[in-house]
Amino acid sequence: VQLQASGGGSVQTGDSLKLSCTLSGRTDEIYAVGWFRQATNREREFVTAFSWNGGPRLDADFVKGRFAVARDTPANTVYLQMTNLTSDDTAAYYCAAGSRWAGSFKLGYDYWGRGTQVTVSS
Fold first, then answer.
1. Three-state secondary-structure class, residue 119
2. What is the rounded distance in angstroms from the CA atom of residue 82 to the CA atom of residue 86?
3. Alpha carbon of 80 to those of 41, 48, 104: distances in Å?
4. Beta-ladder partners of 70
5. Which stretches in the chain have pLDDT values below 70?
6. Alpha-carbon distances of 29 from 67, 97, 98, 106, 107, rounded to whole Å
7. How do residues 49-71 score in pLDDT, each as one tens digit?
8. Within its chain, how far is the Cα of 108 from the centroid?
9. CA separation (Å) from 76 to 18, 33, 42, 82, 106?
10. What is the CA radius of gyration of the chain?
11. SS3 for 111?
12. CA 51 to CA 84: how far, in whole Å?
């Protein structure tokens, strides 16, 4: 399975941005998709995860009320809609996929895409 993340960019505080992650290859084996982010000199942190078939869903506390996820199943694409961005959201954002539910557990994901950089400035 391959993942391609896109949609990052440079925005201002309070702006919105929509990230995409397109899966290809053996997507039939995927059960869950997650988004993580990593700021410079910091550990990669969990953002959100959901099961491909509409089962479990988990969000980091900082997501609630600001970020939303959506998926286009026929296109094998998931989206991360981010609103009211602040400088704390500046990071490289990664999508990941796995054949079982892993939630916020990074090591539970089998496949990772390259990051897409989000930079928020005031």
1. strand
2. 10
3. 23, 9, 16
4. 79
5. none
6. 26, 10, 8, 18, 17
7. 999 887 899 999 999 889 999 99
8. 15
9. 16, 11, 30, 20, 21
10. 13
11. strand
12. 25
E strands, 29-107, are 32-38, 45-51, 57-59, 67-72, 77-82, 91-98
From first CA to last CA, the distance across the chain in angstroms is 37
Contact 13, 89 (CB under 8 A): no
pLDDT of amino acid 114: 95
Do 96 and 23 form a contact (C-beta atoms < 8 A)?
Answer: no
Helical spans, DSSP H, in the chain: none
Partners of 81 in the β-ladder: 18, 68
DSSP state of 107: G
